[in-house]
Amino acid sequence: MMSKKIDFKNRYTCTIIGLIVNGLLVLFKFLAGILGHSQAMIADSIHSLSDEFATIVTFIALKVSDKPADKDHPYGHGNIEVIISWFVAISLLLTGIYLGYSAIHSITHKHYLHPNYLALWGAIISIVLNEFLYRYTIYVAKLINSPVLKANAYDHRSDAFSSIGAALGITGAIYAFPVLDSIAGIIISIFIIRMGLEIIKDTSKIVMNTMPPESFVREIKNLISKVPEIEHSYKLRIHSVGRKQFMDVSIKVDKDMSVFNGHQIATNLKTEIIKKFPYFKDVIVHVEPHKN
Hints:
Order of helices and strands: HHHHHHHEEHE
Number of helices: 8
Mean pLDDT: 83
Number of strands: 3
């Protein structure tokens, strides 16, 4: 009997892989920080712990967002991904602030640790694995247009940046000055805070019903213009609900055209748009007579 093939493009598979790899990294980096005597490595493991939390809530968000539309949620439950993305962002901001404060406290009180090569190798392995998780997660996120997966991918990337800062600080502390380990902690915190602010900025566009980039809108307008029966189109509006998008547009056809034919043109246009852009959940086409 053949076993079921794993779909690595599946959002749940992607999230579970992130959970497993990141969970192992939390334990590995914490031990490397303790045994390697590195404040930057310990701080990096705390960041990975917040990353693990973010991945867990991402998995929950994906499950909830897949619930079908109902009476109270006619557009579906997709915006749970936006809400969870904010939680991820806030988690990053709080982690960044804490790590920055901890590093500054060490510098002002001169409580320096003296890291060794175990901590350095911990940072290097973390960089490689987190960059892999980022590239894999962002690939799947863009494939399905998921804001919460994108936030989770950026969380992995922030962990990679965090480990780069840790590696530089540990190297400097080993060969020159122990204070560099703490300075690396401050640099890490700045990267993490910046990443959290970027997530809030991107997901806020969804809540504010911000139109997608002009290049994307142009693609849709070009598609509509290729339908010979459509004399004119206007009032093109697009808004996102989680990873899905909804669109409505008004088109003008010959005023003598039958209602049936006008409806058929609208239906064909809707089908063509959804076929080309699969993340459109629904397309509403208003048909109006064109006055010659």
